[in-house]
TrEMBL record, chain A:
<dbReference type="InterPro" id="IPR058560">
    <property type="entry name" value="DNA_primase_C"/>
</dbReference>
<dbReference type="GO" id="GO:0046872">
    <property type="term" value="F:metal ion binding"/>
</dbReference>
<keyword id="KW-0235">DNA replication</keyword>
<feature type="binding site">
    <location>
        <position position="290"/>
    </location>
    <ligand>
        <name>[4Fe-4S] cluster</name>
    </ligand>
</feature>
<dbReference type="GO" id="GO:0006269">
    <property type="term" value="P:DNA replication, synthesis of primer"/>
</dbReference>
<protein>
    <recommendedName>
        <fullName>DNA primase large subunit PriL</fullName>
    </recommendedName>
</protein>
<dbReference type="InterPro" id="IPR023642">
    <property type="entry name" value="DNA_primase_lsu_PriL"/>
</dbReference>
<feature type="domain" description="DNA primase large subunit C-terminal">
    <location>
        <begin position="282"/>
        <end position="417"/>
    </location>
</feature>
<keyword id="KW-0411">Iron-sulfur</keyword>
Automatic annotation (TrEMBL), chain B:
<keyword id="KW-0639">Primosome</keyword>
<dbReference type="GO" id="GO:0046872">
    <property type="term" value="F:metal ion binding"/>
</dbReference>
<feature type="active site">
    <location>
        <position position="97"/>
    </location>
</feature>
<comment type="subunit">
    <text>Heterodimer of a small subunit (PriS) and a large subunit (PriL).</text>
</comment>
<feature type="active site">
    <location>
        <position position="272"/>
    </location>
</feature>
<keyword id="KW-0548">Nucleotidyltransferase</keyword>
<comment type="function">
    <text>Catalytic subunit of DNA primase, an RNA polymerase that catalyzes the synthesis of short RNA molecules used as primers for DNA polymerase during DNA replication. The small subunit contains the primase catalytic core and has DNA synthesis activity on its own. Binding to the large subunit stabilizes and modulates the activity, increasing the rate of DNA synthesis while decreasing the length of the DNA fragments, and conferring RNA synthesis capability. The DNA polymerase activity may enable DNA primase to also catalyze primer extension after primer synthesis. May also play a role in DNA repair.</text>
</comment>
<keyword id="KW-0479">Metal-binding</keyword>
<keyword id="KW-0460">Magnesium</keyword>
Length: 478, 323
């Protein structure tokens, strides 16, 4: 029988395991038992002796390595990590989970890339482990875990507030009645049985809820608990005096593993854009459909939002700081355009032009919107763009596609490229990059300008302009 | 009835003779000191904001003296409403403006009985889902002057952030096409939304039906050709008895897929989503005058029988010479 803590280390069982361990003393000592378990696993492939984790810390790093390789390495071989799905390692696995969360919490905090990777890796690992169980056993485990996680028989959908807010699940995926989540076959038949015609209610239950939805909820809740735990550690660490050096060291090693794929595999176009984007003149051919549409002029409702909230941030960032999401560092307009010349001569004219094309022209009946445009560029609520006012407001970053769909639905006419991005600025970067790297290939007569070819191009590009290539993508941007 | 703007004199008459602070609904009067108020004095938008009132009487005096063009109060509750500081929670609101509904069969320039009725139908559908699927209580419906506001004051949702609210909007309006492929024990099955009589697929079916029945040949829908629209109009009688399977066959399964996808994105404009996700929005004060159309914003007791042209017309309109 698999232990619940093998799927959810934060369960009471998992907490018991950590309590038993007591302290960090001897955490880096060799555990012969762990080595033995790894080597005796029949599906385990071992290439080199040093690949075998021999203590808690090494096991922790193997968890991260597994995830990173699985995502990035084309030659990823899952058999080298077979031990990760072997329930015999549960005790060691739980400890290594806590070590990872604590080190990431202490060193990087909840909004870091390290946290995101840890949370996603845990989700993937749970799924992987469930997949290795028999149908019966898997079902039992999911049911038991859910019972612990849901804390009660009837669950109101608002219980999932956090999962909904972080978009780990979508409200439309849940089956709801009178506010309650319907998860059990009895409830399902009781509530909906009489409505179901021409079909067998039980098989309908299997299809719509059954194992799939339960597993999804369980996995996402474990992910959320992991995230919450890291956050908790981070908050505690801020009041504590001295973090354990072992944790800090482990955190460094985690960061190293995460940095590796960008050096050896490159972040090709498949991962949301090419190398570093340098600011340069705007290329209107690379604009996404929504921007092109807004440039044509807004004919009905939503003129203000389209010009002030949507176009102003997009045009200014695309021109001055297209890298903003990758750099994850906020700047001021004047950091990129010290004399405000580009802003005055290129950016504002383009925005004003779009405003003029609105029907009726935006400034004709709402001249005050010029002030609002200045405000969104970070220059406060003033009619003139003056350096002394900079910083009174913040330079708004471009709206995400999600937001545009809500605020300005009539602008959103997605094309194929849109499906791969989450923000119009990413679209722009991606297209610019494609124009730049694919064009020369076309000129030289090459017929193989495929994705594989272009991803090699990224590595070359990364080499020259310095550090840009090793900066992580912003979470959720790809 | 012609909907024309109210003159300053008419506004004065309304606030001094007809309006009573007691007409401001309890759900606002009881939380007056936690809300921010905003006013539009000349008809150019609510730029007199950050107002607070310690009690109903202060509000009463202000309205009688200033007789504003429009009055608003925040959906948010604050510890310090004067600075919009100390945000506590906010009503969950849905704004259905008759002027902006995706398919208007009337073609009027402003609002009229036809589009207001359409707006009311939409509101009824949204209410069903809010109460039925989401199990929410304490819901108020207000006639805004040009449409309807649904204002949810259920504590289960009032603390929720914009991201959750946007998920609620999408569920309510049917903005995502439900998946049609399901699997069990390694077998794949196809279930179209209309074969699932509960949960989100059912909500989606209701919204799509409503849209299809109102569709006109001129309605612009992404990726949906004139031919498809013609086929819809020709065959939509089938939907009255929910003969979806036959309807889908008549349209053609591929074209049907394109059609529902287009309608899903059109559905997102059933409500003004940015009102719903804004945690600090100000909303027209029920009982106040919508001076643009000379109608009273009114808390509705019975939506079925509510008729804005009976129940939301201020007295001065009947006294107009040119009536």
């Amino acid at each position: 029988m698999v232990s619940i803590s093998f799927l959810n280390p934060l369960s009471p069982e998992g907490k018991d395991i950590v309590r038993e361990l007591g302290s960090f003393d001897g955490i880096s000592q060799d555990i012969p038992e762990l080595r033995r378990l790894v080597t005796r696993n029949p599906s385990q492939e071992i290439v080199a002796d040093e690949e075998i984790p021999s203590n808690y810390l090494e096991l922790a790093l193997k968890r991260i390595e597994w995830y990173v390789k699985k995502k990035n390495d084309r030659e990823f071989n899952s058999r080298r990590y077979s031990f990760l799905s072997d329930q015999a390692i549960t005790k060691y696995d739980v400890i290594s989970f806590y070590l990872l969360c604590q080190s990431i919490g202490v060193k990087f905090g909840p909004n870091s890339r390290e946290t995101r990777v840890m949370v996603e890796a845990q989700g993937d690992l749970v799924q992987e482990r469930l997949g290795k169980l028999s149908l019966q056993e898997g079902r039992l485990m999911v049911d038991q875990s859910l019972q612990l996680l849901l804390k009660g028989d009837t669950v109101h959908w608002t219980f999932f507030q956090e999962l909904l807010s972080t978009r780990k699940i979508r409200l439309t995926e849940l089956v709801l009645d009178q506010g309650e989540l319907i998860l059990n076959p009895e409830d399902f038949i009781d509530r909906f049985g009489s409505r179901i015609k021409h079909r067998n209610p039980s098989s309908m239950y299997q299809l719509l809820i059954g194992d799939e939805l339960k597993e999804l909820l369980m996995v996402k809740m474990v992910m959320q608990e992991t995230e919450d735990y890291i956050k908790q550690v981070h908050e505690k660490a801020r009041i504590m005096v001295e973090p354990n050096p072992i944790l800090l060291e482990l955190a460094e090693e985690v960061a190293e593993i995460l940095a590796e794929p960008m050096q050896s595999y490159g972040y090709g176009p498949g991962r949301g854009g090419g190398g570093p984007m340098k600011a340069g003149p705007l290329n209107s051919q690379a604009f996404p459909p929504c921007v092109k549409k807004a440039l044509e002029g807004i004919k009905s409702g939503g003129r203000n939002d389209a010009i002030v909230l949507f176009m102003t941030p997009f045009v200014s960032y695309a021109r001055l700081y297209p890298d903003v999401f990758r750099m994850n560092l906020s700047k001021r307009v004047s950091d990129q355009d010290p004399q405000l010349e580009i802003t005055q001569n290129e950016i504002l004219p383009l925005i004003y032009e779009a405003a003029q094309r609105c029907v009726p022209p935006l400034f004709e009946d709402q001249p005050q919107e010029k002030v609002n445009i200045n405000a969104k560029l970070g220059f406060g609520m003033h009619s003139e763009l003056k350096m002394e006012h900079e910083g009174e407001t913040t330079w708004y970053t471009p709206m995400s596609c999600e937001k545009i769909k809500l605020h300005l639905p009539h602008l959103c006419r997605p094309d194929e490229v849109c499906k791969k991005i989450g923000n119009p600025l990413s679209y722009y970067n991606r297209m610019l990059w494609e124009v730049r790297t694919l064009k020369p290939a076309d000129d030289s007569g090459s017929t193989t300008a495929s994705a594989e070819n272009s991803s090699e191009g990224v590595e070359e590009n990364n080499g020259s302009p310095g550090k840009g290539g090793t900066t992580p993508d912003k979470p959720g941007e790809a | 009835m012609e909907l024309k703007p109210a003159t300053p004199n008419e506004r004065r008459q309304y606030y001094r003779e007809e309006w009573d602070v007691k007409n401001v609904p309890d759900f606002i009067r009881n939380t007056l000191i936690q809300r921010e108020f905003g006013f539009d004095h000349i008809g150019r938008g609510p730029n007199d904001r950050y107002r607070v009132f310690r009690n109903s009487d202060d509000l009463r005096k202000f309205m009688r003296v200033r007789t504003p063009f429009a009055a608003y109060s925040s959906v948010a509750f604050y510890n310090n409403p004067k600075r919009r500081g100390g945000w506590i929670k906010a009503e969950l609101v849905f704004d259905v403006d008759a002027k902006d509904i995706p398919i208007r069969t009337c073609g009027c320039d402003n609002v009229c009985e036809i589009c207001l009725n359409q707006a009311k139908d939409i509101v009824m559908g949204l209410l069903d889902t809010l109460q039925g699927d989401l199990g929410l209580k304490n819901i108020n419906v207000v006639y805004s002057g040009r449409g309807y506001h649904i204002r949810v004051l259920d504590d289960a949702v009032m603390a929720m952030d914009s991201d959750v609210r946007s998920q609620i909007v999408k569920y309510l309006v049917g903005a995502d096409v439900p998946r049609s492929e399901y699997s069990s024990h390694g077998m794949k099955y196809n279930l179209e939304h209309f074969t699932i009589p509960f949960g989100y697929p059912q909500v989606f079916t209701h919204r799509v039906k409503q849209t299809l029945l109102n569709l006109t040949p001129d309605t612009e829908i992404d990726d949906v050709s004139k031919d498809i629209k013609k086929a819809v109009i020709k065959n939509r009688e089938l939907l009255h008895d929910d003969q979806w399977g036959i309807f889908r066959k008549a349209i053609g399964p591929v074209r049907y897929g394109r059609l529902v996808k287009g309608i899903a994105s059109l559905n997102l404009t059933l409500v003004d989503a940015k009102v719903s996700i804004d945690l600090k929005r100000i909303l027209r004060l029920p009982s106040s005058l919508h001076s643009g159309v000379s109608m009273k914003s009114t808390l509705i007791k019975n939506l079925e029988t509510f008729d804005p042209f009976q129940d939301a017309v201020p007295k001065f309109v009947y006294e107009r010479d040119d009536k």
